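Hi R.,

Here's the input for the flavin-adenine dinucleotide complex you asked about:
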Amino acid sequence: MALKRLIFEDEHDWFREAVRTFIDRELRPQAEAIRENRMIPAEAWTKAGEAGFLGIGIPEEYGGNGLRDFRFNAVLGEEFNRLGAAYGSSFGIHTDVCAPYLTDFTTEAQRDRWLPKFVTGEMVTAIGMTEPQAGSDLANILTNATRNSSDDGWIVNGSKTFITNGIRASLIIAAVQTPAEANPSGKPGITLMGIEEGMPGFNRGQKLHKIGQHEADTAEMFFENVEVPDANVIGTVGGGFGHMMEGLAQERLSSAVGNIAHAQRAVEVTLEYTKDRQAFGRPVGSFQHNRFLQAELVTEVEVAQTYIDRCIQEHVDSTLDPVDAAKAKYWSSDVQNRVLDDCVQLHGGYGFMEEYEVGRAWADARVTRIWAGSNEIMKEIIGRSMGFGDPRR
Ligand SMILES: Cc1cc2nc3c(=O)[nH]c(=O)nc-3n(C[C@H](O)[C@H](O)[C@H](O)COP(=O)(O)OP(=O)(O)OC[C@H]3O[C@@H](n4cnc5c(N)ncnc54)[C@H](O)[C@@H]3O)c2cc1C
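And here is the predicted structure with flavin-adenine dinucleotide in place:
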C-alpha cells in the first residue's frame, strides 16, 4: 500500500534478490555467533566479494561492476540494514565511503595494488578521521606526518578512535596533518594516507565496548613513527580536507539510506507483534492509541523514504547538493530514532529484552544521530547554506 518507489530498474531488483539470498544463506544463520564475537568474519567479506557486492562503482579492469550507479549501493545498504545496522555500517564504510577515495584520488599504481583485493573482500578498508580529542572538528586533528630522512615518504604519529572495521581492516585511509613546508599550498593542511596492516609502529587497540551495533569491530588505532611511503599518499598532499568534503555527501546519503531501511524493518516487525500480542482480549495494535501511533510511524518512514529516494536519484545524476545530503542524514536519523523508540514501547517489556530484534535495533540506532557528521553539524551545514556562514564546512 506504500507509494511505489520509482528510482529502481529491473537490474536493481535482481540485485536486491541476490543480496537477500546471500544474507539468508551466509549471514543470518550465523548472526548470533557474529554478534557474540563482535566482528563480521573474514569469510563473510570474501563471500560478499565473490557475489560481486564489493565491486560497485569499481572499474571492471579491477574486477568491479564498472557502474557508478549509487542505486546498487543503496540496495546493498538497505538489505544489510534490515539484517542489522552494524552490517550496514561495516560494509557501507567499505563500499560507499572508502571506495570513492580509492577510485577517484588514487594513482594507477595504487589502484593496481589495492582495488583487486578490495573487490574480492580479501582487503577490508576503514576510514580514519576521528581522534580522541577531535571528531566534529576535523580540521583540528592532531595525527601528523613529517618527511622522512630519505625524503621518499612520511613518518606518522598520532591515534584514531571509533574506527569502524578497525580490527579487520588491512588498509586504513587516514587523515593526517602535514606541515606547511610539505604542502603545495604552503599552508598546514590534512593529507590522506593509506596506512597498511603490518607497517611497523601501526597498532590497534581492543574492540571498543559499544552499547549497540555489536557486530561491528569498532576500534582505536595508534601510529608511532609509522613509515608511510609517498606511494601511499591518496590524492594531493595538503588537499585531504577537500577530498574528504567531496566524499561526505555520499557518506551522508549512505547513512540516510541505511537509517530509513532500518526503521522500516522495525515498523514491520512491530506491526506483526502488535497484531499478535493480546491485552484485554484484543491485539494490542488494535487500541486506538496504538493504531494511530503505527499510522504515524508508517507515514514518517514513507515520507522520509521519498526524500531519500529523490536524493539517491540526484546522486546518480551527479547533482546531489551536499546540503541536501546533510538534510537527509539528519532527518532520517531523527525519524529512525523516534520510530525505534515507539517500536520498543509497542513491544512492552519484550522490547527491552536483548533477544528481541526491536530492542537491539533501538540500541543500534542511537549512534546514527552522532556519526557521519553529528546532526548538530548537519544543521550547521544547512544553516550556513541559508546565508549564515560558509556552507562547505
Ligand atoms: C560506533 C561508531 C563508529 C564510528 N565510525 C567511525 C569511522 O569509521 N571513522 C571515523 O573517522 N569516525 C568514526 N566515528 C566517529 C564519529 O564520526 C564521531 O563520533 C562524530 O563525528 C562526533 O565526533 P565526537 O565523538 O568527537 O564528538 P564531538 O565533536 O566532541 O561532539 C560532542 C557533541 O557536541 C556537538 N558539537 C560539536 N561541534 C558542534 C558545533 N559546532 N555546534 C553544535 N554542536 C556541536 C556534537 O554534535 C556532539 O553532540 C564513529 C563513532 C562511533 C560511535
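One thing worth noting: Residues 127-238 form a domain with the Butyryl-CoA Dehydrogenase, subunit A; domain 2 fold (CATH 2.40.110.10).

Cheers,
M.
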